[in-house]
Specification:
189 residues, alpha+beta, Aminopeptidase, eight-stranded mixed beta sheet, binds coenzyme A
Length: 189
Amino acid sequence: MNLGKPVSVVETDRLLLRPFTPADFPAVYAYQSRADVTRYLLWDARTDDQVREALDKKIAATTIVSEGDFLALAAELKETGAVIGDFTLELFSREHATGELGYIIHPDHHGRGYATEGGRAMLSIAFEELGLHRVIGRLEPRNAASARVLEKLGMRREAHFVENEYLRGEWQSEAVYAMLDREWRAGAS
Ligand SMILES: CC(C)(COP(=O)(O)OP(=O)(O)OC[C@H]1O[C@@H](n2cnc3c(N)ncnc32)[C@H](O)[C@@H]1OP(=O)(O)O)[C@@H](O)C(=O)NCCC(=O)NCCS
């Protein structure tokens, strides 16, 4: 593995993935404060103060060294400069060289392939820059758009835990997707 290297800016066809700054507060608030966005996340729609706290953590999240550290990159539309969402890569296990991918796109921009485009860039960072062996993605199986993103990225559905989490007054399930470094290399060649 090659941990500890700060990730600066990654360019895709339509997106600039770059570290967060305090000026991103309105854009982050615009999607983190919406209940339809957080419906299947582990946290509820955030207040102003909660978004500030979350943004501070994102601003600091530019290097992965220890388990639990994460990279957070703002997804900026190259065409307009607007921040439309974010991507995260967390070091799930250092011993087992495994990361976890996360993403949110503002609903105004859904369905245009942005999560898949940025997700692919995050997998490239995970496997090619950090040298991880395995990347997972976890989601509530009713989150069909997120499942589709992981499938389009070529990740394998490995598990479906039935009602293993009690969230928002109901039992929720969890699907686990994964990709290995050799599968990434095979897909990239
Ligand atoms: C999941 C999310 C990031 C997807 O962002 P996006 O930019 O719209 O994703 P993409 O455009 O790359 O791909 C979405 C795919 O899901 C499909 N889709 C969307 N809603 C769907 C639904 N209700 N049922 C089935 N498929 C659906 C789209 O048609 C598209 O697939 P296609 O290219 O084969 O047509 C976005 O919905 C989101 O931010 N949701 C809220 C936060 C969240 O749940 N994050 C993931 C946590 S695990």
